[in-house]
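Progress note, sequence design subtask.
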């Protein structure tokens, strides 16, 4: 445990209302009310928890300071709330860490709500953030800075669909990269420009888990492509399996870079450990060796 995280492992504090379709035209009136954390505040806090590396859950983090300002909390209170959520994460507790250990029943409800509908909650939180910032007359966009101008080329309905799509993609990417500390779990590559938040069960195959960080691996672009094509997969204990096709390859690069991965364990994420059922689905449905056996 890092010193910065250890400092957070002491007393703490420990939110929601869905958006029917995902349009929130009127900000919730109680988001800033009372001394108790509201559902909306907790949703925003958990949304941020998912997207920050565990070692950056401290009151000096600029994103924590910004959220604290938006919801009228102190940075320390927000930081402690984020570490509180860690006590609900099996990937954290299975390593002997416990977060702050005093998550409230409402914290647990928000945790469960996200896990039941990642897409809706990711978009809802982006809209809540936008509304709060708009109230302070601050421009905001949840798309990548160099992409926002492209939205002007579409109708209002298409623009909203594209914006929501990019919000979802941004959430999943940030959540997965944060969980793996910004490193490819197979190669250790840490240049974010070459990293992909790779779905274990593809986007098109499981709508409910499209944005579930436990359905993601942080991979280099090369390893992502090999995984996506079913040329490599994982065992239930997260060891890398290389296909017979690659084993038989005489390509020098493959033999030097891919084949040594065989039997090696991936680097475990700090949070959102891959679910075994997702790994099994990939191995049984996408891995080329198994597909060939059933042909």
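Output:
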């Amino acid at each position: 445990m890092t010193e910065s995280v250890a400092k957070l492992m002491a007393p703490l504090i420990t939110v929601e209302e869905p958006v029917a379709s995902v349009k929130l035209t009127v900000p919730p009136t109680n988001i800033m009310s009372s001394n108790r954390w509201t559902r909306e505040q907790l949703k925003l806090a958990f949304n941020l928890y998912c997207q920050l590396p565990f070692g950056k859950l401290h009151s000096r983090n600029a994103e924590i300071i910004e959220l604290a300002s938006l919801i009228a909390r102190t940075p320390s209170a927000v930081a402690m709330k984020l570490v509180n959520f860690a006590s609900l994460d099996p990937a954290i507790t299975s390593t002997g860490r416990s977060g702050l250990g005093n998550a409230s029943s409402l914290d647990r409800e928000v945790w469960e709500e996200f896990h039941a509908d990642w897409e809706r909650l990711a978009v809802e939180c982006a809209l809540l953030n936008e509304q709060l910032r708009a109230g302070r007359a601050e421009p905001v966009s949840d798309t990548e800075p160099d992409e926002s101008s492209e939205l002007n080329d579409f109708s209002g309905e298409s623009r909203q669909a594209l914006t929501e799509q990019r919000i979802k993609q941004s959430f999943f990417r940030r959540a997965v990269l944060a969980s793996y500390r910004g490193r490819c779990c197979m190669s250790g590559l840490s240049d974010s420009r070459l990293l992909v938040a790779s779905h274990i069960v593809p986007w098109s195959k499981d709508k409910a888990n499209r944005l579930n960080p436990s359905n993601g691996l942080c991979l280099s672009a090369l390893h992502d492509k090999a995984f996506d094509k079913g040329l490599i997969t994982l065992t239930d204990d997260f060891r890398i399996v290389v296909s017979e096709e690659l084993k038989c390859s005489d390509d020098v690069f493959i033999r030097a870079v891919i084949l040594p991965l065989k039997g090696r364990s991936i680097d475990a994420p700090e949070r959102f450990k891959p679910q075994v059922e997702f790994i099994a689905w990939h191995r049984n449905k996408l891995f080329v060796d198994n597909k060939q056996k059933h042909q």
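Confidence is low (pLDDT under 50) at residues 1-27, 138-155. Work on this subtask will continue into the next period as scheduled.
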